[in-house]
Amino acid sequence: MISRGRVTPYPGKRDVLVEALTQAILRGEYGAGERLRQDEIAERFGVSPTPVREALRILEAQGLVRHEAHRGVSVADFAGTAHEFYRLREVLECLAAELAVQNMEPASAARIAGAVADMEEAAVAGDSDALMDAHRRFHLGLYQASGFTTLVDLIQMVWSRFPWDALLSLPEQRRVSIDDHRAIAELAERGDVAGTVSRLRDHLTAVGQRLRDGVGIIKEEDADD
Q1: Is the pTM of this model over 0.90?
Q2: What is the pLDDT confidence band of residue 29, given thresholds at 50, 70 and 90?
């Protein structure tokens, strides 16, 4: 894969499995609490048990699955905690965005716009890792512009407790997400404090609602849009 002039390694079986299993969980092919049997996954995707074990460890670190002693691996009920998580995100991140726009400098605005461009390029290339990286750089770039280091640290701590960017694994969600981020970046660059905060709040509310609807959030009609 190629991203902004650099060559990235072709994804191995583990990485392909991580993306495939993430999409399967979000589409409801595996329900909340459902046990994920390594042998069945290996057979379904035509791989050996080793990349399955590695993929499940990554998904556990991301909060999409959980491992319990003597019970194995099952799909986490992350939708059940989405309301609290996104209310907290809204409070912290909208405050950070408000302060960021008030203190926005050209270099910060350029970094934020560059992250949106990287998201677009990664989406076109189908490079999920690069997309996740650019998405994180967008949000960090915006919030760091606030100059409020403790607030940014709190935001990152909250992120670490939830698969907050999981929806980007779904190709049909990427266009909406990129459009939202571009609009936020443009409003911030123009110095529109109220507009930036409002658009960010709308974005967080929409993502949170999708997750609150439960695992299996992507319906057939959505995939056809």
Answers
A1: no
A2: confident
DSSP E strands in 106-183: the ranges are none
Residue 215 has pLDDT above 80, yes or no: no
Strands 65-68 and 6-7: unpaired
Residue 78 DSSP code: G
Q: Could you tell me if 141 and 219 lie in one domain? A: yes
Q: How many domains does the chain have?
A: 2
List the Cα angle 166/199/211 in 5-degree steps: 30
- Choose the final residue of a domain: 14, 48, 76: 76
Q: Is 24 exposed, middle or buried (0-12, 13-18, 19+ CB in 10 A)?
A: middle
**Beta-bridge partners for 2:** 7
Query: For residue 11, what pLDDT band results from cuts at 50, 70 and 90?
Result: low
Asked whether 98 and 188 are in contact (CB, 8 A), the reply is no
The total of other beta-carbon atoms located within 10 Å of residue 118's CB is 20
